[in-house]
Amino acid sequence: MEDGKGKMEDGTEIVLHISINAPIQIVFDCARSIDIHQLSTAKTNEKAIAGRTSGLCELGDEVTWKAKHFGIYQTLSSKITKLKAPHYFQDCMIKGAFSFIKHDHFFEEKDGITIMKDIFAYGVPYGIFGSLFNKIILKKYMTNLLITRNQVIKEVSEKNPQII
């Protein structure tokens, strides 16, 4: 349940919107591309290491990612739990360092411009220590990762959609 400040009772929620000058299908495909995701996370050396490791994620696909965050290599497995092309998909963490992750991706096209909306909800373990870490460092870090990802999706969708 959201309290209106982007914080949920049992976790944190980050909501982002970006306008992309490209057709909805291209943006949708870029957003579910493993290869474009890896391009957008080059700073953390994120790689798909198990499950679907390239191409476009489909309903039911699982991906295990390995990335370096805060100086430590970590793995996280997620699954595409909902998909209604080209308007929506959801991925959820099935294994990883968070208590939970639920990432909803929405797409709407108006006059040739696609509005992409992310609702990224997550929980952190470790009680008060996890909450403090989230408040001081993690929420900003996760927001910046998502902004970078969305910017790469925008750039590829607008300039080089044949990469997908």
Characterise the protein shown here.
The protein is an alpha+beta fold. Helix content is 29%, strand content 41%. It contains 3 helices and 8 strands; from the N terminus they run ββααββββββα. The protein has helices at 24-31, 34-40, 127-159; strands at 7-8, 11-20, 47-51, 62-69, 72-84, 88-95, 100-110, 113-123. Strand 1 and strand 2 (11-20) form a beta hairpin. The longest helix has 33 residues, at 127-159. The termini are far apart.
Q: What is the compact description of this entry?
A:
With 164 residues, the chain is of the alpha+beta class. The protein contains three helices and eight strands.
Number of helices: 3
Rounded to the nearest angstrom, the distance between the terminal CA atoms is 36 Å
Major beta sheet, specifics? 8 strands, antiparallel
Query: How do the strands of the widest beta sheet line up side by side?
Result: 1-2-8-7-6-5-4-3
Q: Kindly report the average pLDDT value.
A: 92
In terms of structural class, how would the helical and strand content be classed? alpha+beta
What series of H and E elements makes up the topology? EEHHEEEEEEH
Strand content: 35-45%
- Extended strand count: 8
Query: What characteristic shape results from the CA principal axes?
Result: globular
Task: Report low-confidence residues grouped into runs of 5 or more.
Answer: 1-9
